[in-house]
């Protein structure tokens, strides 16, 4: 496989600086908490909280025992023989709500949560106050998966279903009303993740929950799982006394498909989900990790805009009457007129018809075409602004063999940039945390926790060619030092691409200097696959107005290809007149000036 030959296989050499922490005993269930920008990682294990501080000289660790009392353990063992190994205090939740750190454990079948007050001078964690709703936040046994997400001063918790427990999505802590899902809304949910959907209007902020539903009475020839997205509004304060009093009034759910088109080959069991969004814009991508009945794992990518659109416009399943007034389930500001006739009607619609008809399908209508057969156990993702001023998604996929694959996802498809083998152990990756701000990835297995740099550029060799062929968007070639280096934080990209303000009527000609007559030159727009030829060439390959050349707005790059090796020679960002420009380079230029200046710029 040609594609694979470019994958850089790294074995992390741990002899110099060990950014690795070994557990004293295997930790088969680990929870993690990491705050962006810090060097600390909280790891919850069996009857133990590990507070790890990663420094240039190694990992400092503070281990805080958190055992259940013996009577709880004895009671657990007496009543739940098959779960005997789970009769201990497994730390399942470590989260910060406002400034309060909340830590929850299974406590041998009767969950408890504590608020962490501070780390005292002699490095002991001081707790106060248990939290009443502990059994809604933490499961009683670690094999029952739960998700918790802090948002806007409240804690949101999703609990997977097990025998005798329906599973739920709840607001569990905070000053807002504590709400829950109605049992009929979820069919044996198994949760895979949750994410905040930001909005410029605060009251429109939503939380998405990702899960699979399991139909236990499905026939053997039927697929028992269905992947789902459920959503609620953070402003939701529940219904009225007679209807949805303590339940969400904004819950809706949708079916999610992951498979090739309408074929039978579908991956219906969503195991994990991560979302990449812009700070306050509802745009981005959802990555779901799915498996099929044979346990094969794939990744599907979805557009957040598509999902948002479906929830705001789709018909509701089983409901055909027109909506009166506002659409049911939408986020609305708390308003004194609430409780009016239409609102009550809408509550009824949501109560009985929370599912939308539209089905969410992946971008490219199929799973990402990853050239690997590895079983993926965990995924995290990052958005990278590369030297060429484009945003790229990078996925980090943990495998059942303790490897981490670093995968570039762009409009052109997926590409495995590199693969890390985590030397000391071959067990599955159980958990990961990413810190985009500091550029770190934390990877946990049952035996150890490691920190890796997101930008690992020195490993791509000593030539510009190798650096660029790695396609690692975290890295760039430093011409003066002749090294492949991480793109420095706050790197000033004002030289590339150059901004040009286009007046609606003028013709624009973009020059690209021809430096090598052995190379072929062409233009691409917005990194799209479509190429534009030179209008005339000589010393310059010029892109100018022609049929099919939309020279109005966007990023235009001149690409030279020689010997299979591509370089970007120059790029321009055309901005339509009337728009405000931030960059100082922006200029209003006529065609002749533009051509003349090109020569100046290049010396
Ligand atoms: C979180 O902070 C906000 C504003 O500072 C406050 O209104 C809210 O009550 C706090 N929530 C909790 C759970 O302490
Ligand atoms: C589960 O599958 C059975 C058998 O196909 C079907 O009759 C039943 O309606 C399904 N249940 C749900 C909630 O979809
Ligand atoms: C309440 O809602 C009505 C109609 O939906 C709107 O006209 C009014 O401005 C709202 N009031 C507040 C205080 O938001
Ligand atoms: C980037 O560089 C340009 C020109 O050197 C300068 O004017 C601008 O202030 C710089 N921007 C930042 C954010 O440093
Ligand atoms: C732009 O073009 C229109 C018609 O094509 C013309 O009427 C107008 O005067 C032009 N404006 C400028 C600034 O050249």
UniProtKB/TrEMBL annotation:
Cell compartment(s), UniProt: Membrane
Superkingdom of origin: Eukaryota
Gene Ontology BP annotations: axon guidance; neural crest cell migration; positive regulation of cell migration; semaphorin-plexin signaling pathway
Keyword Signal: yes
Annotated transmembrane regions: 580-602
InterPro entries per the UniProt record, alphabetical: Ig-like_fold, Plexin_repeat, PSI, Semap_dom, Semap_dom_sf, Semaphorin, WD40/YVTN_repeat-like_dom_sf
Family that this chain belongs to: Belongs to the semaphorin family.
Originating species: Sander lucioperca (Pike-perch)
A family per Pfam: PSI
Keywords: Disulfide bond, Glycoprotein, Membrane, Signal, Transmembrane, Transmembrane helix
Matches recorded under PROSITE patterns: SEMA (PS51004)
Signal sequence residues: 1-22
Name under which the protein is recorded: Si:ch211-113g11.6
CC terms in the record's Gene Ontology section: plasma membrane
UniProt-listed SMART domains: PSI, Sema
UniProt GO MF annotations: chemorepellent activity; semaphorin receptor binding
Domain Sema span(s) in chain numbering: 1-454
Gene3D superfamilies: Immunoglobulins, ligand-binding face of the semaphorins, domain 2, YVTN repeat-like/Quinoprotein amine dehydrogenase
């Amino acid at each position: 496989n040609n594609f694979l030959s470019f994958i850089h296989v790294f074995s992390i050499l741990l002899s110099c600086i060990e950014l690795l922490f070994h557990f004293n005993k295997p930790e088969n269930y680990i929870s993690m908490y990491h705050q962006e920008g810090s060097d600390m990682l909280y790891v919850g294990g069996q009857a133990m909280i590990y507070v790890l501080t990663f420094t240039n000289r190694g990992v400092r660790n503070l281990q805080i025992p958190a055992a259940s009392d013996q009577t709880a353990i004895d009671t657990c063992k007496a009543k739940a023989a098959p779960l005997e190994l789970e009769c201990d205090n497994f730390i399942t939740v470590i989260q910060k709500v406002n400034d309060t750190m909340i830590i929850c454990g299974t406590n041998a079948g009767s969950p408890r949560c504590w608020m962490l007050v501070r780390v005292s001078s002699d490095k002991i964690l001081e707790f106060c106050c248990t939290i009443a709703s502990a059994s809604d936040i933490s499961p009683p046994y670690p094999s029952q998966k739960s998700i918790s997400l802090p948002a806007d001063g409240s804690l949101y918790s999703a609990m997977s279903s097990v025998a005798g427990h329906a599973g739920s999505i709840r607001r569990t802590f905070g000053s807002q009303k504590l709400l829950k899902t109605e049992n009929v809304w979820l069919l044996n949910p198994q949760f895979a993740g949750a994410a905040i959907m930001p909005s410029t209007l605060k009251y429109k902020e939503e939380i998405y929950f990702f899960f699979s539903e399991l139909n236990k009475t499905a026939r053997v020839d039927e697929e028992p799982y269905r992947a789902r997205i459920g959503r609620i509004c953070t402003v939701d304060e529940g219904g009225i006394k007679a209807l949805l009093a303590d339940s969400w009034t904004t819950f809706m759910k949708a079916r999610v498909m992951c498979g090739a088109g309408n074929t039978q080959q579908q991956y219906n069991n969503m195991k994990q989900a991560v979302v990449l969004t812009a700070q306050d814009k509802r745009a981005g991508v959802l990555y779901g990790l799915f498996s099929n009945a044979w346990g094969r794992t794939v990744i599907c990518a979805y557009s957040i805009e598509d999902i948002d659109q479906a929830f705001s416009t789709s018909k509701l399943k089983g409901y055909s009457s027109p909506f009166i007034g506002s659409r049911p389930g939408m986020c609305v500001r708390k308003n004194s007129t609430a409780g009016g006739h239409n609102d009550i009607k809408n509550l009824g619609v949501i109560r009985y018809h929370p599912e939308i008809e539209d089905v969410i399908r992946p971008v490219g209508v199929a799973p990402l075409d990853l050239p690997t057969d590895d079983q993926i156990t965990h995924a995290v993702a990052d958005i990278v602004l590369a030297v060429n001023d484009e945003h790229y998604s990078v996925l980090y996929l943990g495998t059942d063999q303790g490897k981490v694959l670093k995968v570039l996802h762009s409009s052109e498809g997926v590409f495995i940039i590199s693969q890390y083998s985590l030397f000391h152990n071959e067990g599955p990756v159980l958990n990961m945390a990413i810190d985009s701000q500091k550029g770190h990835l934390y990877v946990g297995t049952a035996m150890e926790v490691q920190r890796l740099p997101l930008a690992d550029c020195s490993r791509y060799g000593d030539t510009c060619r190798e650096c660029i062929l790695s396609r690692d968007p975290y890295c760039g070639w430093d011409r003066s030092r002749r090294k492949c280096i991480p793109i420095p934080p706050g790197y000033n990209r004002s030289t590339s691409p150059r901004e040009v303000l286009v007046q609606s009527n003028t013709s624009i000609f973009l020059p690209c200097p021809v430096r090598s007559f052995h190379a072929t030159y062409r233009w691409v727009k917005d990194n799209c696959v479509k190429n534009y030829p030179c209008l005339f060439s000589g010393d310059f390959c010029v892109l100018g107005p022609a049929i099919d050349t939309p020279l109005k707005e966007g990023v235009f790059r001149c690409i030279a290809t020689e010997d299979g090796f591509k370089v970007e020679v120059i790029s321009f960002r055309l901005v339509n007149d009337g728009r405000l420009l931030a960059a100082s380079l922006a200029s209003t230029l006529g065609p002749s000036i533009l051509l003349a200046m090109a020569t100046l710029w290049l010396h």
